Amino acid sequence: MSYEQRRGWGRGRGRRGRARSFSSQYESGSVENPRGGRREKPPPHLKGREIGLWYARRQGHKSKEKERLERAVVKMDESREKHIARLLNSVQAQNNNERSSCSKGSWWATENERNNVSPQLRQPASSEVKDHDWDSEYAAEENEAGTYLDQQLREEMQKKRTNYKYLEMQTFREKLPSYGMKEMIIKMINSNQVTVISGETGCGKTTQVTQFILDDHINRGKGSSCYIVCTQPRRISAISVAERVAAERGETCGRENSTGYQIRLESQMPRRQGSILYCTTGIVIQWLQSDPHLANVSHIVIDEIHERNLQSDVLMAIVKDLLTLRSDLKVILMSATLNAEKFSQYFENCPMLHIPGFTYPVKEYLLEDVIEMVRYMPKDSDRRPRWKKRFMQGRMIRPEKEQKEELYRERWPDFVRKLQTKYSQSTIEALETADDEKVDLDLIVELIRFIVLKGEDGAILVFLPGWDNISTLHDLLMSQVMFKSDKFIIIPLHSLMPTVNQKEVFKRPPPGVRKIVIATNIAETSITIDDVVHVIDGGKIKETHYDTQNNISTMTAEWVSHANAKQRKGRAGRVQPGHCYHLYNSLRDSLLDDYQLPEIVRMPLEELCLQIKILKLGGIGSFLSKLMDIPSREAICLAINHLMELNALDNHEELTPLGFHLARLPVEPHIGKMILFGALFCCLDPVLTIAASLSFKDPFVIPLGKEKMADARRKELSRNLKSDHLTVLNAFEGWEYAKWRGARAERDYCWENFLSSNTLKMLSNMKGQFAEHLLNAGFVSSRNPNDPKSNNNSNNEKLIKAVICAGLYPKVAKIRQSLSKKRKIFIYMIALKSPHIHCFSLGETFQSRKTTSRIQLQWMNGLCFSPLQGLHT
């Protein structure tokens, strides 16, 4: 579609919009409220789930009425109208079953199912047919189908009880602590609208509570009315838990069975009734756009609420309001820690239940114990006082962190004196020279060797803050002859890895083979690796912090909280007595926070503000005030102002047409604007590639010791364009060509150019998802990012750069020449007072650090290269 055609299509939309104004007299008597005036309430005789179905039917009526009003009007005489009415009535009698299936919740249907559903045929003389007659007909039909399905589900359950695999799994389930409290859990959930359940890691709450609910409904003959949705904070946990539950029920995941999962770009959906769906929290929030009452959901389980991620906090606030409209909806909040009181108070002091876990005793070691045991001395040690090495780091961004560091410095001399009575001088020297701002991977390698040679058998689980640490440790281990043998299985585990690879972590190795899992905090609570005996806690966790004064976000490795440390300890000792090695000293341990800060108070709020408006949750400030922890007024105002500058919100904080489309795209608003420009200017494919890399990560990897080689290859791929964005584009296009040539060519291309094949595949999937959104919004005519009509200008390099700048503005920088001999250029930017080029940027590669202005290490440490945080030059 050409640019001129798009303009003509837009004008056509305007004509249809004006045509609707001539039908305003019909809108006042809509299906939702035939008499006009205040909103109609459900009939008083309806109770429980019937109220939710009533709202769903009303919403369906309203959508169909709106569709009817937007159609072209055709006039005909009375006899012709009666003839057509008779034909429609005869067809309608043959399609009752189709009508019943169409009335099911849209969030269960796939995109193809929704597109293929036939619209409801309407009665011609609506004044002669009352709403409650149609409702009665529908209710009778629904009850008949429900009774049959209830019986079918009960018979299916009875058959399972004779299945060997099911009985074997049942024996395992009965050993879990949660199973012993089954009746108590069911009774509490059935008696209360909201229930908080806390339980130690491994007690079985995530896998068992949902099954207790479903089995109870099936046994009581109410299986068809049970739709359980359990949210998970991570993709891997949604998949792994769903597959585990399906196995326990003697089934496979999805395929019209009782258990399934849905995550971004991947799903195995269960049957529509009498089922359990595990999904990421964002999926449920997306459903709310089309089904604000979640009419088909009978139970919503929000798991891992103790992590306090942004989406879970938002979902809890939405559900809290929804409970006033859905008296039949059951909400179960599940936490792995004992801070359940706060969640209970948030939901009007709802009842709480704690499931005690069973683990074998776990012996804990701190850093001084580990160093003494391994007899380790840091490489390239420096006898400078530890606080001088890091005094400036983070000071301008995290003042509260510096307060802790100041206290740490004051207590250090007394701490060392106490150590002298218990530990050797070499251990004290190692502690004084260690840089505890970084995770010492060499120490971890030595500790793993020590465990292998002198420790008990069993899997080793290593916690590290990020993928860079994981990949580096993996390479360090594989560089040693000991770990190259077939006696070891080393598995990196990260949320960005393909789900197929992640499943390997749950398999037990053969006898005589030791499994070593290197993971982020994803392995703290989201998944359970039941054969772990040794846990190595690196003591760090990646966190994003937003500085409102400088309008910058940083993702840095912060110290874990006591709650994190407890969870990590709990991963050992599930099969036998275990060991947990914390790589921080006892002084640091005394200064750790009890819990992590909630994401809502340390993250930018632009995306959340758009979500609030697209879900019609009211004013931004008023909704945010309903959250368990309220963001600062400064952060809220800054987000609103940014969206107004972006023209996503008007002066009344309402969505503009641009804002509406940005809210529909699952990316940060500036990236979304860039995507829309790419569609409008017909350079879609390259812009989608750049947008995917900005919202996810760039595909380049930098192996330890090969930094210069990686930089050289990156520079070659740039083709002297001096642009990070276009370099990623060139790398991606080269990978697509290599993939077309075959698997070996693809592997060689990635190896030679220091590219991650997994990341490139993820970027390709994301491009397809973005194109799907654009197709649904009417910006493109095909879901294929390479569609010729959408890429007439994709070879225009200047246009692509203009689209990038227009979308990301004002997060752009301009270089100005300087007359100074010391500084050859200045970097000027509206959005930041002190802009800085990332150390891996091509801007830094082509210009030495002496020629660029104000490049300071504390700003480059962990700086995320994205439009909210980095520069685009």
Average pLDDT reading: 79
Helix content: 40-55%
For the largest beta sheet, what order do the strands appear in spatially?
Answer: 4-3-5-2-6-7-1-8
Which of globular, elongated, flat, extended, rod-shaped describes the shape? Answer: globular
Largest sheet: 8 strands, mixed
Q: By helix and strand content, what is the structural category?
A: alpha/beta
CATH fold naming of the largest domain: Rossmann fold
List descriptors.
alpha/beta, disordered N terminus, Rossmann fold, 8-stranded mixed β-sheet, disordered C terminus, single chain, 38 helices, 873 residues, 6 domains, globular, 48% helix, 6-stranded parallel β-sheet
Report on this model:
The protein has 873 residues and is of the alpha/beta class. The chain folds into six domains: 60 residues, no CATH class; 54 residues, no CATH class; 211 residues, 3-Layer(aba) Sandwich (Rossmann fold), CATH 3.40.50.300; 239 residues, P-loop containing nucleotide triphosphate hydrolases (Rossmann fold), CATH 3.40.50; 127 residues, no CATH class; 64 residues, no CATH class. It contains 38 helices and 18 strands. The strands form four sheets. Strands 4-3-5-2-6-7-1-8 form an eight-stranded mixed beta sheet, sandwiched between helices. α9 packs across α10 and α30 runs antiparallel to α31. The longest helix has 30 residues. It is globular and about 80 Å long. One of its GO terms (biological process) is defense response to virus. Pfam families: DEAD (PF00270), HA2_C (PF21010), Helicase_C (PF00271), WHD_HA2 (PF04408). Its EC number is 3.6.4.13.
